[in-house]
Every structure is written in structure tokens, then in C-alpha cells.
From TrEMBL:
Gene Ontology molecular function: any one: ATP hydrolysis activity
Keyword Hydrolase carried by entry: yes
Protein name: 5-methylcytosine-specific restriction enzyme B
Taxonomic path: Bacteria, Bacillati, Actinomycetota, Actinomycetes, Micrococcales
Native source species: Brevibacterium antiquum
Keywords for this protein: Hydrolase
All residue ranges annotated as the AAA+ ATPase domain in the record: 478-638
CDD domains on file: AAA
Major enzyme class: hydrolase
Hydrolase as UniProt keyword: yes
Amino acid sequence: MDNDIAASRRQLDMNIAHQAGELISHMLGDKLSVIDPTVEIWTAAGAEDLRSRVQTDPSPGSDLSQWNKLGVQLGGASRAVVLLAAELVFLREHPLNGIRPSTRREHVEDLLALLDPPADIPGQMSEWLARPSETGGFEPNTYYLSAISDHLSWVADFIIHWSKLSEDDQAAARSDPWQLQQVMLDSGDNRTDIRNTFQYLAHPEVFEPIPSANQKKQIRDAFADRVNGASGDTPAHIDRDLLAIRTSLAKEIDGEFDFWSDGVKEKWKPAPNVAASGQSADELTEPRPRRYWLYAPGRQASKWNEFHSTKIMAIGWDDLGNLSAYSNREEIRHALDADSTGGSLKNSVLALWQFQNEIEIGDVVYVKSGRREVLGRGQVTSEARYDHDRSEYRHVRSVDWTHKGQWALTRDAPLKTLTDITSQHDLIEQLEALIVGEDEPEAREQPKDIRAYTRDDFLRDVFLPEERYLRLRSLLIRKKNVILAGPPGVGKTYAAKRLAYSVIGEQDRSRVQIVQFHQSYSYEDFLMGYRPRESGGFTLTEGPFYRFCEDARADDPTRPYFFIIDEINRGNISKIFGELLMLIESDKRGTELRLLYKDESFSVPPNVHIIGMMNTADRSLAVLDYALRRRFGFFEMAPGFRTEGFASRQKALASRSFDRLVERVIELNAEIAADPALGHGFAIGHSYLSIPSGVESDEDELAGWLQSVVEDELVPLLDEYWFDEPAKAEQWAVALRASIG
């Protein structure tokens, strides 16, 4: 291997492969187990038995985890087969970056416990399993983590194929990485992720530690100009190109690197293009307002003095390793519940997720002790990090602690380690008054760096023709109150926010608020009413619409504000709006009426606009209040499968399965529209097929997503629509499944 290439590879990745290489050498050589060297495990007979077992579901329809299911599948298996499964599980998980050592060890030990007599993990392998998280290897996607049966099946196929080769062919493959790759490909390429993993473990000097074939191609394509263009798109071509690309980069980069290193990753993995993905741009493009957090620095604030002096906030659960390795809350829950107790661990999971992913620089943190005492206030100044140098509380953020003292609360604070209190305006105002001496928190300030949002942005994001957008915009400005009506999945909420921004001219979240009506929602919830106090008695509390109107009134009257009401026809309109039914009329803006609960006159400012959303397919809803119909303009929203925006994203995806599914859904909508019991208001909207970020570049993820859309969303919806015509529902379910098959 070229010295530059050898020096460029991360030593941690090489160590992992060299450790696993001992098992690989037995697999390709003498067939002996590393755990029990007296037993041959890498045999065709053992592989066939293992494959048969893992391809048989022992409990169809049950909620057994894949690990519990594997234990059942291996029940009664020979010693050789159980050892084979245990060593394959080791090989599959050893290169994973974010898995805790205890979890890796547990998965192997659980299988060895099936043996009689049981086998212990040998000392050297035990040392390998003790490797800490975040020390080399790769980050698996959720598809990899959930595919234990598919992975074991593929390796079994490879072992069977390998056993059929001549000794000369085996010897050639053992000595030549590219011949070994070809043997793996010849054995079946239905699971590229585990093949790529085994390639790397067998020859880390040649193959990158990247399981995803699509990711490999994405990297190769981004750097293809360094090697005079792509040599081809077969796995061998792509891996040879990646080796050549590394050779080129190694001449410019000093020391170790991988394709996720700073300065390298940015060239092949740019920031997600939200518009192209079809994903909601809410969290990615809108300026996020400051959020407020209540935080306990250790039990009974035992770490407060240390954290204050070192200007940090930190939380425990150190065994989880770097929290950036977890892509969702469920992965954190599984890591916390290593013993599979089934407990929800809800508060712990939420605290860990929010600490890592939801707190942002500029957020305000209040420090609490117990339920009635506040000790400090500060402002977050850094992203989350995992500090290996700390002996405990390694999940850390830097904080500028602006206040320290002791203040008594008049209400009980939550007992949780971390609580988002942004929506608890009364509590924030009390804390600010106690600590800072002001009852108006900084959250009310104008957001900074607000991005412009124009008509063109709306037309790019929302599947609505320009002439219909202009009509909708005109209706909203003229009536001041509009209801977007349509079937599920046409993007009513998505469009409502962007409609507001397009009129405002920028994505100013401080001038847009959303609430949702329901059958129990009342005037007291919406405008104003009495609420019980913890200390006894009642206090008059302002509702969201009252606060919103007061904020709009205090602003320049030429700056429009938008109050969005989801599921507006779920509420009792007369009960919720009360005297507001008159005040919201466009020609009654500014007219004052005395409020029911407060001795003051109130009016709805002229710069307040109301956008409601109504689901036309909800059979549980009554006819909309006619008094409300007169005060609102109604705009019908339909599926946008034939719009230019959807068509362009469909073309960019270039998936035949997706194209077929779109056509079936369009045909299905025609059938629904023609059904006298349903009609256009029950059509299936385009949001069901809005492509999530990351799916478009990974065939496996795309296939899994399409299957989930059909099985978990569309088929149940059809069962509900045609509950009295099950044959028709089944006919269309079969058609939808066939379109992606």
C-alpha cells in the first residue's frame, strides 16, 4: 500500500478492521470459531441452517424485537450454528461508531447463553468489545440497525458460495481484495450495506468504511474530476475510484482523514436543499425564536457551583457516548433500555434529545433546585459536545451565567432535569421579574436575520398554480379571514404559513401564531378566562388570541399579523369566539366591545388576519357554523400531483416505483371523486408522497419509505373510506402494493 494512502487512513478504523480480521481469516480459511476454536462454524451446512432459521418468522404479527426474534429462531440450533450467529453479530456491530460497548457485548452474550454448555467470550475479543463509542468505525442508518436477519442471510449465502469455490480460486480471493469483492458480488448483492462492511473489515487498506452504496457513489461523483471522471457505476468501479480519490486527496491533506473530515465532507455533502426534497422547511429556513429552559444541575443542584465557575451546563448518562450518534429519540431509548425492560424512559429520553438537538445558542436557561427555588440564569453560547476529559456529566454546553442567587418560586417547577418552558409565558414573566427585575422577557424582541419570503418562494414551495395563489392572496387581504378547505394531505397547514409569509414579505415567526381547535376548546382557552392557582383560588389568564391581538396592536398598523387555526371546524364556533364573531369581520376591525371577563373594551386590530384550515374528509365534523361562513372567504385546496412543482420533484427523483405509485393514486382519486358517498373532498393529497430528506439518495431508504406510505397510511385510509365495501378497498390496496413491487 502506498505510504501516503496508509498515512491518510484513520488508525482507529484500521484497528477495528484488524481486530475483526482474525474472524474473517478463519471464515476464509480453516473455518474455526474464535470463541470456541474446537468447533468449525464457517461451513456450508451451518450457513444453510442459519439462513433457514433467520428467514423464518417465528411469530408473525408479534411485536418481538429483532434480537428477541433471533433468540427464538436459534432455539434448538447446533453449537456450530449458534457460534456462527454470535461471531457474525460481532462482525456486524464491531465497526459501528455510536453503539455502546455494553450493547455490543450484550448482543453476543445473549446468543452464547443459548449454548449448552455455555461459552465465554475469549479475553482478546472481550478487549475488542470494550472499545468506547465514538472511537472509529461508521455511523449506521436505521435500515442497517434493523436488518439483522437480512444481514445474516447474506453472509450465509456468501459462506455457501465460498465453499463451492476451488482451492485455487479461494487462494486468489484471499490474496486479492478485488477478487474477494467479486466473489462477494457473485454470492448475491441484495444487501450492499453488509457486503461493503465485510469488504472494509477484510481489506481496510483498500475499501472505505462506508456501508451505503448510494453514499459511496455520491462521494465518488462529487470528487470524480480528481480522477479524470468516473470509471463506471459498478461496485468495483466505484470502489476503485474512491481509492484513487483518496490517493489524490492524501497528497494535499496532512495526516489522517476520512470523507467526513472537515474540508472534505462539505465538498460532497452540502446542506440539504429543502425545496428539492419536498420536506417542510419550517425548522430549516425560518429564524427560530429564543427558547427558555428550566434546568437542574445534578440532584438538588449539587453541581451548580462547579458549572457556574466553569461556565457550562451538563447532564449525565455518560455511558451513551456522544449523543450526536443518535438520529432519533427511539435510538436513545433503546440505548438506555439495554436490558429490554420495556420502560418508556420518557423524561430521560426527552432531556437527552433536547439537550443535544433542540437547545440553541442564545437560548435562556434558568437553574433550579427542587421545585420552589431558582439559583441562576444564563444564556447558551455553544453547541452540545461530549467531553471525554470529564469524569462525569460529559454532555456539555457552554453558558454565560449572567445571574446567580436564590429566588423563591410561587408555583411548583417540574421535577425533570430539563424542561422547555417557552410556551409558559406566565412562568417566564415571573422568572424574569424575580431575577432580572423586568417582567417582559427578551423573547418578545424582534427576531434577527429574518429571511425574505416572496411570491416566487411560495410558488416554489407550495403546489399551487400562480393564478390560484394570486386569487387566494387577494381574498385574504380583502376578507382578512380565510379558510383553506380540502382533503387530508393537500398541505393546508404547510400552505397557510407560507401564505402568511408571502404577504408579510419575510419569514417573521413573531407575526404568525398557530392554534388547533377541538371539541373541548372554549372561549376561556381562546381569549380569556379564569384558571385555578396551585395555591388556591382562581386567576384571570389571557388566551393566545388576546395576546396576539395586543402584540399586533402595539406594532406598526401597516405590518400584517396572521393567526392560523388548524381544524377550525372541530370546535364549537359560537362557544369559542363569543363576541369576537362580530369583531373579526373585516368592516368591524377597530370596533370595541366590553369583554366578558375583564372590565375593558377590546377590538381586533385591522392588521390581524385569520387563516383557518378545514379537513373536508372528516366524517365526525358537523356542518360549519353559518355565522362563521359569512365572515370567512373559502378557498378549496386540491391534490397537486399535476402541478409543475410536484412534477419537477418527481422527475428529479427518477424512480419508476414512485412514478407508478403517483399514477395509481391519481387513478384512485378519480375513483374516490366518482363515489357518491365520498367525492372530491376525500381525495388523497400530495403530501402523502412528499419526498423526505435523505430518501432520494438511498434506494433502500426509498423502498422502505414507499412501502410504509402504502401499508401504514394509504391502505388504512382506504379501509376507512370503504368500510362498507371491503372488496373495493382490497382491490385498490393490491393495486397500490403492485405499483411499488
